[in-house]
Amino acid sequence: MNYLAKRVVFIIVSVAILVVATSFFNPSNNNKGKHRISVFFEDYVRDKYLKLDSGVYKNGFGQSYTVSRLRYYIGNIHLIKKDGTEGYSSSEYYLIDDAGPGSNIIELNVDQDDYSSINFIIGVDSIHNCSGIQTGVLDPTLGMFWAWNAGYVFFKMDGQSPASKSTGNMLEFHIGGYKYPNNCIREINLNLAPKGIKKLSNDYSVITIKADISKVFDAVNKIDFSMVSTVSDFHNATTIADNYKTMFSVIQ
Amino acid sequence: MTQIAYDKIRFFYFNKKSYLIINNLCHLRSPLFYFSKSSVVILSLVAFILLFNSFTNDNPYFYISKKDVELVIPKGFPKLVYEFKDNKITPDGFLLGRYLFYDPLLSKDNSISCAFCHQRFAAFAHIDHKVSHGINGLIGKRNVPAIQNMIWQKSFMWDGGINHLDMQPLAPITNPLEMNEDLKGVIQKLQHNPEYVERFKKAFHDTIIDSERILKALTQFTGLMISSNSRYDKFIRHEDTLSTTEFEGLKLFRSHCENCHKEPLFTDNSFRNIGLAFDTSFKDSGRMALTGIPDDFMKFKVPSLRNVEITYPYMHDGRFKNLEQVLNHYAKGDFKTSNFDKSILRNVGLNETEKARIIAFLKTLTDKTFTYDRRFADPNYN
Q1: Which of A78, A182, B7, B154 registers the highest number of CB atoms within 10 A of its CB?
Q2: Is there a single domain that holds both residue B282 and residue B352?
Q3: Is residue B381 part of a domain?
Q4: Which chain B residues touch A181 with a CB distance below 8 Å?
Q5: Quick one: B175 and B244 in the same domain?
């Protein structure tokens, strides 16, 4: 079964299970006014799902590349109501791993309301970067932590490109840094109107966020793999960060 | 019967008894019959001590009591940076940290431990080694700093790259030129070691072994490494005196060095360029390599001068082998790179007497109470 089909089946099955499961409860009891939203982060390259290893893509310079690993931290999710006030906020972090099934689904328990936008950060805020050992998705054993310059790697994308001059034509974009002037935390604000939230039942909705990986190399800054093929400290880090800020959009 | 003859008989009986026991012939009277009263007392005492030791299994030298892990803030020391708020020190946590600190399993090929480079008798620096050493004889790029008074430090390493004491051990563990291991590997090795499973259980009340526990246990151990009992400290507390030379040295120190090496920690935790020549083989640009800020070129952490006498060689790359060379660097005034810290200009022209006095003072910062503190001894000698 190919990757896309797997995803679709996974989503359908999980939604079906949720719908069936929730039907057993009487929502008017203790869940009055409560609403559950699943936020799906889906990795794309332009209009196609990202396929790790096998997918061959091209950057703005026509240089082809493949992606073998893609992980990024999402945190500080906020939902803004139609009247402009904050309806939901959380300081939780989520590690979206393209190779980790289910890691791309974020469950939010919110108040029943009309939400007009979703805000979040890509990265890990400075408090979590300098308060010592963290657990859960921030556990340093997950390979998203720099020991020599203590702090999290916010975005990690490995792959290959014939244009890369690194050993083995490697592409290695490891972006982190929470301090000025190399701060790579980026805030994302996405409009949910008019059809950003898909209501599946009275108390369950879905938001789907597309992460278009092609933007990492081809947005405000154009990345030429023959010039920049590895980023693993402050060099070029904010250049990539300014790009990944633009990769998210809400889709149906 | 004379006394001598009587003793001979006793001696005979004693040997006969041994003989009989060896031959497994037990038709004897009560063994006490063959002993004098005093020998019974001595033997039972020996037996009791042997029995007692087999239960405690610990040489008192290596035993860690609750009192041993009490955090005592030395008088006059500033507010703590690391307050152990989320990491309460316990004897078992401290002991676990001590085992980890001295255990080579933290390295990729189980060959070197933290203590390999951090020697207790050198205030946990590496005497005579310019830069750190790693597995397979690899050579790192910076001098091994002392481990002392860590809980007052805001950042760690020569470039300040580490922002929290709990995260510090990750740097040497994962550095390919040092231990070249990763936390996952360490966790796996510990999980397969029944002794460690037992130690984690004692320290944390269950057998889960994860990065948080490993790092926090190490901090319990290294965080208590506090040096505050040098002759200088005793002088300040009016418990000891300094010689005239040492006291003159202290005065000179206060007018020439104190700007950066602030008492009582003897560092202001800042990063400064002291005009050293750029080393073209190490190519170490210091803090600039982390921040990318040109003004950070060759800036390094101001090291504490506590125990400086026993932490030679000096500087971030160990380029000076003794304190005379360090003082000469300042006195000579041949400062390289344009962004050197201008406050060091006050040291240009220090004469031989002044330098000798400052060095005499610096040697009063040696803290034998710390370097001989039994709590920090290698538990493998137990």
Answers
A1: A182
A2: yes
A3: no
A4: 291-293
A5: no
The answer to whether position B119 is within a domain reads: yes
- Taking the Cβ of residue B166 and every Cβ of chain A, the question of whether any pair is shorter than 8 Å is answered with yes
The residue from B202, B226, B250 where one domain ends is B226
Q: What percent of chain B has pLDDT over 90?
A: 83
- Structural domain that includes position A25: 3-251
Which residue from A132, A139, A148 is facing B161, i.e. has the nearest CB?
A: A148
Question: What predicted TM-score, i.e. pTM, was given to this entire model?
Answer: 0.81
Which of A30-34, B15-19, B253-257 is the least confident region?
Answer: B15-19
Does pLDDT of B23 surpass 60?
no
Q: What is the CATH number of the domain that holds B259?
A: 1.10.760.10
Q: Is B80 on the interface with A (CB under 8 A)?
A: no
Shared domain for B190 and B114, answered yes or no, is yes
Does any domain span residue B380? no
Phi-psi region of B58 (alpha: psi -120 to 50; beta: other; left: phi over 0): beta
Cβ-nearest to B167 among A133, A141, A181: A133
As beta bridge partners, residue B243 has none
> A118, A150, A152: which is closest to A137 by C-alpha?
A152
CA distance, residue A25 to nearest chain B CA (Å): 36
Within an 8 Å CB–CB cutoff, is residue B212 touching chain A? yes
Contacts of B161 in chain A (CB under 8 A): 148-150
Total domains present in chain B: 3
- Our count of domains for chain A comes to 1
Domain range for B36 is 3-56
State how far the Cα of B375 lies from the Cα of B292, in Å rounded to an integer.
41
Distance of CA B49 to the CA centre of its chain: 32
Query: Which ipTM score applies to this complex?
Result: 0.76
Query: Residue B188 corresponds to which amino acid?
Result: Q
What would the pLDDT profile of B276-309 be if each residue is shown by its tens digit?
A: 999 999 999 999 999 999 999 999 999 999 999 9
Give the tens place of pLDDT for each residue, A132-155. Answer: 999 999 999 999 999 999 999 999
pLDDT score for B366: 98
* B160 in the same domain as B235: no
Nearest to A240 by CA among A131, A160, A155, A138: A155
- State the nearest Cα–Cα gap between B288 and chain A, in angstroms: 10
